[in-house]
Amino acid sequence: MQKKILLIEDEKNIARFIELELMHERFIVTTCYDGRDGLEKALEETFDCLLIDVMLPGLNGVEVCRRVRAKSDVPIILLTARDAIMDRVAGLDAGADDYIVKPFAIEELLARIRSILRRVNKSETKEELIQVRELIIDTASYEVTFEGKKLELTKTEYDLLKLLCENKNRVCTRELILESVWGYQSEVETNVVDVYIRHLRTKLKTEKSPYIETVRGVGYVVRE
Predict the structure, then answer these.
(1) Of 88, 89, 113, 122, which is closest to residue 102 (Cα–Cα)?
(2) Which of 93, 134, 154, 171 is deepest in the core (most CB within 10 A)?
(3) HSE on the CB side for 51, CA within 13 Å?
(4) Would you put residue 58 in left (φ > 0), alpha (ψ -120 to 50) or beta?
(5) Residue 161: which of 128, 198, 188 has the closest Cα?
(6) Contact 39, 94 (CB under 8 A)
(7) How far apart, in Å, do the first and last CA atoms of the chain sit?
(8) Would you place residue 56 in the very low, low, confident or very high pLDDT band (cuts 50, 70, 90)?
(9) What mean pLDDT is reported for the chain?
(10) Euclidean distance between CA atoms 6 and 29, whole angstroms
(11) Rounded CA gap, 85 and 28, in Å?
(12) Which residues sit opposite 46 in a β-bridge?
């Protein structure tokens, strides 16, 4: 089945180029050139992935991402000309699953999209329960409960937590996490991992020993 992608990009030449490349790869593409129009379309219809430019008229891409994420766990990739760390963090904090800095090679964007769609498919087909203390991950229903209550997670938060819990008591390096969760390796983007670990720690607050521990200079581990 062909996958549906919503592209929200105000620069029409760039939008048309991306649209044609995606169509060549057999994606069904819907394009919007304004943040508010894009948000409306994202909430009205069902898509397999959203590509959102950060600098949009009407409503900026980070805000579009935040509002979509409040109602949907659809995978989101931000397209941005900004390469400052705080701009990236703002997008990830808003709920984006990934980001790519302009100018980028179209092959890299396609690889990011394929990676994110593989993660979705993998989560939907594998059936099992993973439990660590009072944390339970039901991979069949894509639900997580913590201390008896349902935990609301984004797709990336879910994949990261699942990876750590599947490898409980074993340290996962940042490089392993990037490869397993984001589907690519990088020497400079490991701060993405740190941002999402912070998100998970906030949602897994407990009066008992913390679920996620930092192993300095190496990575992270979930203890039984």
Answers:
(1) 88
(2) 154
(3) 29
(4) left
(5) 198
(6) no
(7) 40
(8) very high
(9) 88
(10) 6
(11) 32
(12) none
Structure confidence at residue 90 (pLDDT)? 84
SS3 string, the chain, reads CCCEEEEECCCHHHHHHHHHHHHHCCCEEEEECCHHHHHHHHHHCCCCEEEEECCCCCCCHHHHHHHHHCCCCCCEEEEECCCCHHHHHHHHHCCCCEEEECCCCHHHHHHHHHHHHHHHHHHHHCCCEEEECCEEEECCCCEEEECCEEECCCHHHHHHHHHHHHCCCCCEEHHHHHHHHHCCCCCCCCHHHHHHHHHHHHHCCCCCCCCEEEECCCEEEECC
- Token pair recorded at residue 56: 């949009």
- The answer to whether 112 touches 98, Cβ cutoff 8 Å, is yes
Integer Cα distance of 125 and 33 in angstroms: 35
60: left (phi over 0), alpha (psi -120 to 50) or beta: beta
The pair of three-digit structure tokens given for residue 66, joined into one six-digit string:
């935040």
The CA distance from 152 to 210, in Å, is 18
Tell me the pLDDT band of 188, cut-offs 50, 70 and 90: very low
pLDDT tens per residue, range 26-45: 999 999 999 999 999 999 99
Percent of the chain beyond pLDDT 90? 58
Percent of the chain with pLDDT over 70: 93
Tokens of residue 191, six digits? 């701060």
